[in-house]
Structures are given as C-alpha cells and as structure tokens.
UniProtKB/TrEMBL annotation:
The protein's required cofactors: Zn(2+)
Listed PANTHER family: 102 KBASES UNSTABLE REGION: FROM 1 TO 119443 (PTHR42978:SF2), QUORUM-QUENCHING LACTONASE YTNP-RELATED-RELATED (PTHR42978)
Stored InterPro entries: MBL_superfamily_lactonases, Metallo-B-lactamas, RibonucZ/Hydroxyglut_hydro
Pfam families associated with the record: Lactamase_B (PF00753)
Stretches assigned to the Metallo-beta-lactamase domain: 2-205
Single Gene Ontology MF annotation: metal ion binding
Transmembrane segments: none
Name by which UniProt lists this protein: MBL fold metallo-hydrolase
Keyword entries, A-Z: Hydrolase, Metal-binding, Zinc
Length: 235
C-alpha cells in the first residue's frame, strides 16, 4: 500500500486563489491556518516525504480546509464516502464544496468507503457500519453524519490503545470529553445539527468508557500534538 494521508489541509497556493468570501469566513470560524508552514507539503517534508510518495489520500469530507491540497496528489488514489461525495456534488453551495479543488481525474482515482469490506466492532458500531481499510482490521472506518454528510472517521489500533481520527465531528478533544457542542451560532456551517449533537454524545460516551483512547479532531491542536499519530502505514 505505501503511505496513507488523512486529509490534505488547505493548500495556500491552490486554496487562496479560489476562496470565496463565504469560504474565507468559514476558514476564520474554523480557525484554519493556511500558511505555508502548516501546508501539507511542509508536513510531509518533516517526515521526509513528498506528495508523490503518498499512495492513498483519505478525504474525510469535502470542506475546502480538508481537500484544498488534493490537486498536489497527482498520482495518489483517493478514498472517501460515496454518499458524502455525491451530496457535495448535488449541494455544493450548502456544503461549501469546490469541485475545482479536486483533481480533474478525481473520480477515476477514487474508491469509496461504502465498497470496503465490513468488520465487526462492537464499540464503533454505535455509528453504524464499520469498514476495514486494509482488510486486516488494523484501521477501521465509520461514517459520521452531522458536520458533513457521511464524514469518514478512522480508528487506528485496538481497544486498549486506540487513536480515533474524527475529523470535524467535534472541534476539540475537550468538546468530546465534556460533551460540549459548538456554539449554536455556527449552525450554518454544519449539515445536520441534530445528528451532530447525537454523534458528539456517542463520542463522549466512548471517551468516558475508554479514557486511554486518543480522540483527534482535525482542528484540535492539543490532541494533534499529544497523539503524535499519523494515519500512515508503510509496507
Ligand atoms: Zn468541515
């Protein structure tokens, strides 16, 4: 398989050139850092990698700060939710989607989580079907509604030492530990407020019953630094 990347961030070259006013407002609310220092290229370089070294890019959902660097990955395969992608195509304005942030040949290089084999996981099944990314149970995926349709979350490791990449299902690990939803003033950002609250509560319950798990929301700098986990696998 090679190296796997979870989301691309918001590439300053590509993203800034296409950002609309609403997208800039979104980035401001979401505390998105679009500087060159935090770009995916810079992050990969710290690991001694370049975009062409990445075999698979998992796209959790289609907000610009998660797909803004996708065009840099000219040879990689992509993985996303079919329902999530089709929803973004159907409702680009409401879901903040820019098709031009994706490579032109995205669909020919994309696989869908819904087509992966399923695996039994009594803990993650609170979110519905559980998918097996590599076919060995090492990385399991679930699709979490609320912030965006069918957001791809990935669990690495077993029940004793797991790392759960939850993308924007919560904005901080503290929000999960306290079951604290985002301000209702940000409702316009989210696709389904009721589902967001329900799934945040599920994450909260998992956090209470598994205090050794690392929950890593994409915008939580603290948990990103603490977890020191990357969805990478080299073989
Ligand atoms: Zn988002």
């Amino acid at each position: 398989m090679g190296w796997v990347l979870y989301d691309t961030g918001y590439d300053p070259e590509i993203g800034a050139a296409t950002a609309s006013f609403s997208m800039r407002l979104y980035a401001r609310v979401m505390n998105v850092d679009v500087s060159r220092k935090t770009s995916v290229v810079a992050g990969l370089a710290k690991l001694g990698l370049r975009p062409e070294d990445i075999s698979l890019v998992v796209l959790s959902h289609f907000h610009p700060d998660h797909i803004g660097g996708a065009r840099l990955f000219a040879k990689s395969r992509f993985l996303c939710s079919r329902v999530g992608y089709e929803s973004a195509l159907r409702h680009p304005r409401r879901l903040g989607f820019r098709r031009d942030l994706l490579p032109d040949d995205f669909e020919t290089r994309c696989d869908y989580v819904e087509d992966l084999s399923m695996v039994f996981d009594s803990l993650l099944s609170v979110f519905g079907k559980v998918y097996d990314l590599f076919g060995d149970g090492e990385v399991r995926c679930v699709l979490i509604d609320g912030h965006a349709p069918r957001q791809v979350a990935c669990m690495l490791g077993g029940p004793d030492a797991a790392c759960f990449l939850v993308s924007d299902a919560a904005w901080s690990s503290q929000a999960i530990s306290r079951n604290c939803p985002p301000s209702s003033l940000t409702r316009w950002i989210h696709d389904d407020w009721k589902a967001l609250l329900e799934n945040l509560e599920k994450l909260h319950r998992l956090a209470l019953s598994h205090p050794n798990w690392k929950f890593v929301p994409s915008h939580c700098r603290v948990s990103l630094e603490e977890a020191e986990c990357r969805l990478v696998r080299s073989c």
